[in-house]
UniProtKB/TrEMBL annotation:
Subcellular compartments: Cell membrane
Organism the protein comes from: Anaerocolumna jejuensis DSM 15929
PANTHER family recorded: INNER MEMBRANE ABC TRANSPORTER PERMEASE PROTEIN YDCU-RELATED (PTHR42929:SF1), INNER MEMBRANE ABC TRANSPORTER PERMEASE PROTEIN YDCU-RELATED-RELATED (PTHR42929)
One GO biological process term: transmembrane transport
Membrane topology, from the record: Multi-pass membrane protein
Protein name in the entry: Spermidine/putrescine transport system permease protein
Tree of life domain: Bacteria
Major localization class: membrane
Length: 289
């Protein structure tokens, strides 16, 4: 009787609080992942999924054509991440050290693009960078070029689109790390004779490295799968792992192979997050958004 009373007083309220969250995660996270994993071992007759176990889908992942796309995906993700770090770190540093009013304005500027759909924003860039767009018109009017430059449908355009979409994902973790930086350590470094470059390399950068690593994870992983950026800015010329998944589920109607590609992408994510944790990263930093 006492145990039942104790359950009602302590355990029952806890379960009432946790259960909805647990149910939500099971229905919208765990169940779909289990389904995709199960689907990746099935076959297809060209039109429908056949419930016949096979490892052919995973063997197909080693197709030389797909290996080339993997390499292209990692190259694009690498340069996207590097560009986000190079542009994001100064922005985050300036925002962290700004006064309260200026910091709020900078944060608002960073977050306003999230209020508009990504596809609309990318099509805006497509209009600006086209042969008859504002950018080419400006260069022509200034006499810097004789004919419009082909900017769209190149690897550089895809990287630009990726950086534009993912820039906040790099800035926010960096801002969180830089904002906690003890400025007295920087002053001590200067007092000991270190110039700005040495102070940054030996003090600032190591202390803010958790933000760099968190931002890298948050930018690099989506860069592998944002197929719509490649479609709009690259005209489908720069294929990503995300494009492979999209094509198999839609055009090729080969859901099992698409599921195998999805599991490959999930495996990459797990490996990167595991490496991040092994290097001392805090998983809470990956939830800045």
């Amino acid at each position: 009787m006492k145990k039942s009373h104790k359950f009602r007083n302590k355990t029952a309220p806890l379960l009432a609080t946790v259960s909805p969250v647990t149910l939500w995660l099971i229905l919208l996270v765990a169940a779909p992942l289990i389904y995709v994993f199960f689907l990746s071992f099935l076959s297809t007759d060209g039109y429908n999924v056949v419930y016949k176990f096979t490892l052919k889908n995973y063997a197909e992942l080693l197709n030389p054509t797909y290996l080339e796309i993997y390499a292209n995906s990692f190259i694009l993700a690498f340069f996207t991440t590097i560009a986000c770090i190079l542009f994001g770190y100064p922005f985050a540093y300036s925002m962290a050290k700004a006064n309260k009013r200026k910091k709020a304005v900078m944060m608002l500027m960073l977050m306003i693009p999230f209020w508009t759909n990504s596809l609309i924003r990318l099509n805006g860039w497509k209009t600006l960078l086209g042969k008859t767009g504002a950018f080419n018109s400006l260069l022509l009017n200034l006499g810097l070029i004789d004919q419009p430059v082909e900017i769209l449908y190149t690897r550089g355009a895809v990287i630009l689109g990726m950086v534009y979409i993912l820039f906040p994902y790099m800035v926010l973790p960096l801002f969180a790390s830089i904002d906690k930086l003890d400025m007295s350590l920087l002053e001590a470094s200067k007092d000991l004779g270190a110039n700005r470059a040495k102070t940054f390399l030996n003090v600032t950068l190591p202390l803010t490295s958790p933000g760099v690593f968190s931002g890298t994870i948050l930018v690099f992983i989506p860069s592998l799968g944002y197929f719509f950026v490649s479609d709009i800015m690259g005209g489908g010329k720069s294929q990503l792992i995300g494009n492979l998944i999209e094509n198999q589920f839609k055009a090729a109607n080969n859901w099992p192979l698409g599921a195998a590609f999805s599991m490959l992408l999930i495996a990459i994510i797990i490996i990167m997050v595991t490496v991040y944790k092994k290097t001392g990263g805090d998983m809470k930093d990956l939830g800045v958004l």
